[in-house]
Amino acid sequence: MSETHIQTSGLSLFYHDVHVLKDVSISIPARHATAIIGPSGCGKTTLLKCLNRMIDLVPGARVTGRVLVGGQDIYAGTVDVTSVRKRIGLIAQKPTVLPMSIFDNVAYGPRIYGAHSGKKLRETVEHSLRVVGLWEEVKTRLKDPASRLSIGQQQRLCLARGLAVEPEILLFDEPTSSLDPASSLRIEKAIEDLKSDYTCVVVTHNLSQARRVADHVLFMCDGELVEHGTADAIFESPQEAQTQAYVMEAESE
Questions:
Q1: Cβ distance 46 to 20 under 8 Å?
Q2: Half-sphere exposure of 149 (CA within 13 A, CB side)
Q3: CA 167 to CA 83: how far, in whole Å?
Q4: Residue 26: Cβ within 10 Å count
Q5: Crossing angle for the helix pair 151-163 and 181-194, nearest 10 degrees?
Q6: Backbone angles phi, psi at 212, to 5 degrees
Q7: pTM of the entire structure?
Q8: What CATH code is carried by the domain that includes residue 187?
Q9: Taking a C-beta distance cutoff of 8 angstroms, is the pair 102, 142 a contact?
Q10: Number of domains in the chain
Q11: What is the predicted pLDDT for the residue at 113?
Q12: Please, are residues 75 and 53 in contact by the beta-carbon 8 Å criterion?
């Protein structure tokens, strides 16, 4: 049995008076890839943002229940939110590079946490770019603006930027939805490589992608967790009628 890294208990999310997430209780295993699937608007991205407290930035959002990361309740009053977001990186749907060089994009986080210059910072930048398969493509132009990279390269740069602060967990919010097929496969390959060292949670609307990258799957509908289990169990023999219908419809498209 895999070690549980993230556990939610009775997690609910309200936007003002609208009940968006409804009593979600899940266990996400360490150093595996877990996919969150379900129809548009079912709460997948909202759940993801609750897992690293990015939901705090949404006006009118209110969370109840518990989210434990490594046994620590990240919504406890004594918890430093900045440290939570350092531990749990989020790679967004559309890459957002900072208005600075390729090198400085990756170095941005380490500098915030005290690594201002020197050999260690350069090694961190190189290592992070190598992990996402970008180093060979950019090593001769690290001083160029990051905005000159292709969209696919920018997404891998954002992933490298997240890795540079040494997180425990990586959250991916439909990370390939704006990418071409070749760039999408590079991101999927990165997730496959990363999951041996990091806990990866991937929101995706692409069931073929979920089949390729996920060890475990959570299926959500209307803000509720309908079913969860191994990828083989969810895709080959789902137990709930809603899951069966969703998988059949998605795979017929």
A1: yes
A2: 31
A3: 10
A4: 20
A5: 20
A6: -75, -40
A7: 0.93
A8: 3.40.50.300
A9: yes
A10: 1
A11: 82
A12: yes
Consecutive 10-residue averages of pLDDT for the chain (253 residues): 88 94 96 96 94 94 96 94 93 93 95 81 95 96 97 96 95 93 93 94 94 96 96 94 91 69
What pLDDT is attached to residue 117? 73
Q: Which tokens is 24 given?
A: 């979600």
Residue 13: domain span: 4-94+168-252
Question: Residue 47 has which token pair?
Answer: 């759940």
In 3D, which of 72, 33, 67 has the Cα closest to residue 51? 67
Question: How many residues belong to the chain?
Answer: 253
d(CA 145, CA 99): 7
Asked if the structure places residue 194 within a domain, the reply is yes
3-state secondary structure 108-142: HHHHHCCCCCCHHHHHHHHHHHHHCCCHHHHCCCC
Distance CA 229, CA 217 (A): 6
The amino acid that residue 12 corresponds to is S
The answer to whether residue 33 sits within a structural domain is: yes
For 72, the 3-state DSSP assignment is: strand
Task: Assess if residue 110 is contained within a domain.
Answer: no
- Tokens read off for 233: 């169990």
Instruction: Report the 10 Å Cβ neighbour count for 233.
Output: 15
End-to-end CA distance of the chain: 35
- Which of these, 135, 158, 136, lies nearest to 146 by C-alpha position? 158
